[in-house]
TrEMBL record:
It comes from Candidatus Chloroploca asiatica. This is Cell shape determination protein CcmA. Belongs to the bactofilin family. InterPro entries: BacA/B.
């Protein structure tokens, strides 16, 4: 009767799109990771992450980085500053240590967040560096 029509809310509908790039569970990456598409991290990433699409940190994912993305879903562990245009979601297995700037923040029961959060409706764009402009001569 009650609760029998519970929706599957594992990820927001914008996050259900298939990732174009996957960092596998047995992979370690150090440096700057940039992508125009969706990215899933199941391995280890250290450095900077700039994604124009969605970022999913899987349960085995470990990220120590400054993150900028459209949407972020954390089921693993993230340490660092996170800037999200739309929504940051921390699942029951997710852990985030660091400051967050996001349009929306959703922490499911069991999820861990230690840091400060700032909710904004308009974050300066673009996330990526602008292309060089032609010189006027």
């Amino acid at each position: 009767m009650f609760g029998s029509s519970k929706k599957n809310q594992s990820m927001p509908s914008t996050m259900n799109t298939k990732p174009e790039t996957v960092i596998g569970a047995n992979t370690r990456f150090q440096g700057t990771l940039t992508s125009d598409g969706n990215v899933r991290i199941d391995g280890s990433v250290e450095g900077d992450v700039e994604i124009l699409g969605n970022l999913i940190v899987g349960e085995t994912g470990r990220v120590v980085a400054m993150i900028k993305a459209q949407n972020v879903h954390v089921s693993g562990a993230v340490k660092g500053e996170i800037t999200v245009i739309e929504q940051l979601e921390i699942s029951p297995t997710g852990k985030v240590w660091g400051d967050i700037t996001a349009g929306a923040l959703h922490i499911e029961p069991g999820g861990l967040f230690r840091g400060q959060s700032s909710m904004v409706s308009n974050i300066d764009e673009p996330l990526m560096l602008e292309a060089p402009r032609p010189s006027e001569t």
